[in-house]
Specification:
This protein is of the alpha/beta class. It has helices at residues 56-63, 88-92, 110-122, 126-139, 155-167, 185-200, 212-218, 236-241, 246-256, and strands at residues 16-27, 30-41, 45-49, 71-76, 79-81, 95-98, 173-177, 204-208, 221-226, 229-234. The protein has one domain: Rossmann fold (3-Layer(aba) Sandwich). The chain is globular and about 55 Å long.
């Protein structure tokens, strides 16, 4: 069986896997991101939170250039990610991303959704890709659904399939863009449990989420954003118990009701 665990078990290192410096992004005259500076080490779990429209999703989408930035610098594993780069797909292979919507192919079975990327992008044989896909479907506790089609699954099950699909490319980092926001309360816990297992296994993760219980349990650092800027960065205990800015305090009081 292919070694499907080696790239996922990464202890926290002082070497940044992602380096963001002076990042700026505009939409016309609107400044979506301004002077973003953030390093994420290998094996680190970073939760990004803040009010709607604060630039959280835009920031992580710039990391794999789903959004192009106009100023600043982004490095992923030492490679600069910049607008118009011809080999962006080489960088994206190292970056798994899970969206609010599941983006699964509805006409393909679950296992085919997982194997199409490795077969087309990495030239892996169908048998090896299927073996890897089944491993990760087991890892997200949904292997029994392998032959079904996405519309036959619940939202929570589809999101777990989306996580397994991203893992099949053996990424160096996982980006989560509010992965539970489209789910009903009964299915959120299952998806968060899978993310917690990934975190416990050493996966480098940047998670945009409003799930503060998840942040308390998993995050090494919490990044709070507002109006396109990073307002505060702290460990979870400090952030939740003693936020340092008025904006952080207001956000937490509205979100947590105190």
């Amino acid at each position: 069986m292919p070694d499907v665990n080696s790239d996922l078990m990464t202890p926290i290192s002082t070497t940044p896997l992602v380096e963001i410096s002076g990042l700026c992004k505009w939409y016309g005259k609107f400044s979506a991101l301004f002077d973003i500076n953030l390093n994420v080490s290998r094996g680190e779990k970073v939760v990004v939170c803040g009010p709607s429209g604060s630039g959280k999703s835009t920031m992580i989408r710039c990391i794999n250039q789903l959004e192009e930035h106009q100023a600043g610098r982004i490095l992923v594993d030492g490679k600069e990610v910049k607008p118009g780069m011809k080999n962006i797909e080489d960088v994206r292979r190292d970056i798994g991303m899970v969206f609010q919507s599941f983006n699964l192919f509805p006409h393909m079975t679950v296992v085919d959704n997982l194997t199409i990327g490795p077969i087309r992008n990495k030239g892996i044989s169908k048998s090896d890709a299927t073996e890897t896909a089944m491993h990760f479907l087991e890892r997200v506790h949904i292997s029994e659904q392998a032959t079904k089609y996405p519309p036959q699954l619940s939202g929570g099950q589809q999101q777990r399939v989306a996580i397994a699909r991203a893992l099949c490319l053996k990424p160096k980092i996982m980006l989560f863009d509010e992965p539970t926001s489209a789910l009903d309360p009964e299915t959120i816990a299952g998806v968060l449990d899978v993310m917690i297992e990934l975190a416990d296994g050493g996966m480098t993760m940047i998670c945009v989420t409003h799930e503060m219980g998840f942040a308390r349990k998993v995050a090494d650092r919490v990044v709070f954003m507002d109006h396109g800027e990073i307002v505060e960065i702290a460990d979870p205990k400090s952030f939740f118990n003693n936020p340092q800015t008025d904006r952080s305090q207001l956000f937490l009081s509205q979100l947590l009701g105190h």
